[in-house]
């Protein structure tokens, strides 16, 4: 089942298409239906409707006026990048002459309703970003186009491996900008292809901003806290099936407010640290120390385990040496479903 989301942005840094729920003139009313997200247009200009099933062929050659309806986005896939979550989507317009987005505050929130161990759950924010098209409008041909949105570090809260596309819901808030129309030649930077805007409407890759406002920071910090809880519940079956009785490198143990490595750690930075490990090693796991007796009680630490499994502590610590970790950031830990913490940790 195809999911409806917003334009695909490929980014280098953070993700500012951050979709915050905010009231007032900033937020355009729109449908939040799962698998079918649209944004309401502020510029109400009547235009003929286009066949929604038409394939993208070429960008419009003349001036493009704002469509009376906001575009729709259908998420087709998600992929992990290096410290990024890349969301690919088909973007369509209901206007035959095409449409555009040219504002600086195009905000997108992507939610997942997948429970930690399968089945349905309440919606959890999995990506948040704000995209700026003010310098280079994103042109959408009448037949639509494929766009890749890239959410950077601390703006996505789950790896692609742990996201079920069919359970996503997108809440977009589009910003057309102040101009009633744009010319295609002003949209060159919104395409990853070297082809001119008047030729094939090739897939576009757009970057989300790394900056965010205070309300977005608060929203994303709360989302990261929920994501840490979701991930630890999701990874428990992995621990139970593969880790028990084995030694594995423990890479970090942190909690919000901890001052270490030259910074104060937040839920967002702790989660981002884990997600980078997870993207490299699918068997890496996150555990909450209070849920396991092999950690000292009451610590309330978020612990990252590498997923490399060994029969002895020496082998696990040798892996740390090989990977270049210092003694404070990698040492052997043995996971058990019960029993005391004594004898389950061996430092280097």
* Helix/strand order, N-terminal first: EEEEEEEEEEEEEHEEEHEEHEE
Q: Beta fraction of the residues? A: 25-35%
Query: Cα-atom Rg, whole angstroms?
Result: 23 Å
How much helix is in the residues? 10-25%
**What structural category do the secondary elements indicate?**
alpha+beta
In this structure, how is the largest beta sheet organized? 6 strands, mixed
Shape: elongated
Query: Can you count the helices?
Result: 3
* Unreliable residue runs: 1-33, 40-57, 186-200
State the separation between the terminal residues, measured CA to CA: 50 Å
**What's the number of domains?**
2
Q: What's the mean pLDDT score?
A: 82
Provide a compact summary of the structure.
The chain has 348 residues and is of the alpha+beta class.
Features:
single chain; 348 residues; alpha+beta; 2 domains; 16% helix; disordered N terminus
Q: What would your notes on this structure say?
A:
- By secondary structure, this protein is an alpha+beta fold.
- The chain has two domains: 3-207, no CATH class; 214-346, no CATH class.
- 16% of the residues lie in helices and 28% in strands.
- The protein is built from three helices and 20 strands.
- The strands form six sheets. Strands 1, 2, 4, 5, 10 and 13 form a six-stranded mixed beta sheet that branches. It has a five-stranded antiparallel beta sheet with strand order 17-18-14-19-20. The chain has a three-stranded antiparallel beta sheet with strand order 8-7-11.
- The protein is elongated and about 70 Å long.
- The chain starts with a strand and ends with a strand.
